[in-house]
């Protein structure tokens, strides 16, 4: 894997990476993160009685929208044809944590890691927004890339260090 910054030219100017000569490959990315909430929020989310509506359903749609808008939010990201996107949850009621998993797939010349990470973050922000009237003591944590496949740099799997 080539090391160094790819979004700067020889003069230090920010540039979008030229992917015109790269091969189209199948690419996937999975990102995750979680939001810690109080017991009152966890109960309201699981019972489905948050005043703003179905928190996890709305947050899922927001995360998918975030994936599709990534190139509009992150200046050097290429617009990509997203072929698959899913946002899934694991609720840890003992720790009062809502874990978010965003999977993104495409065939293209550049990866979908930023899209998966953006999907997680937008999902978490939407959960916060929909629950803040109950309690603002929420913390979003450990947003990171779990794995990615495809491309010149090969596959990646997150390992705790």
**Low-confidence runs of at least 5 consecutive residues:** none
Spatial ordering of strands, largest sheet: 2-3-1-4-5
Rg over alpha carbons: 18 Å
Helix/sheet category: alpha+beta
In percent terms, what proportion of residues is strand? 25-35%
Mean pLDDT: 93
Per DSSP E runs of 2 or more residues, the count of β-strands stands at: 5
Describe the sheet with the most strands.
Answer: 5 strands, antiparallel
Tally of DSSP helical segments: 4
- First and last CA, distance: 19 Å
Q: Assign a percent range to the helix content.
A: 25-40%
The helix-strand sequence is: EHHHEEHEE
Quaternary organisation of the protein chains: single chain
Any idea what the shape is?
Answer: elongated
Q: How is the secondary structure organized here?
A:
Elements: E1 25-36, H1 39-47, H2 55-68, H3 70-73, E2 84-92, E3 97-108, H4 113-131, E4 139-149, E5 156-157
Antiparallel strand pairs: 1-3, 1-4, 2-3, 4-5
């Amino acid at each position: 894997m080539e090391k160094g910054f790819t979004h700067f030219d020889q003069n230090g100017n920010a540039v979008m990476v030229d992917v015109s000569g790269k091969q189209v490959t199948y690419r996937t990315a999975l990102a995750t993160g979680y939001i810690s909430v109080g017991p009152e929020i966890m109960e309201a989310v699981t019972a489905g009685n948050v005043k703003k509506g179905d928190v996890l359903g709305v947050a899922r749609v927001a995360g998918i929208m975030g994936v599709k808008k990534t190139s509009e939010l992150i200046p050097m990201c290429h617009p990509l044809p997203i072929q698959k996107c899913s946002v899934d949850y694991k609720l840890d009621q003992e720790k009062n944590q809502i874990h978010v998993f965003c999977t993104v797939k495409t065939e293209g010349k550049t990866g979908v890691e930023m899209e998966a990470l953006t999907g997680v973050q937008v999902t978490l922000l939407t959960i916060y927004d929909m629950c803040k009237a109950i309690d603002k003591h929420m913390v979003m944590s450990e947003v990171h890339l779990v794995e990615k496949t495809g491309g010149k740099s090969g596959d990646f799997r997150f390992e705790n260090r």
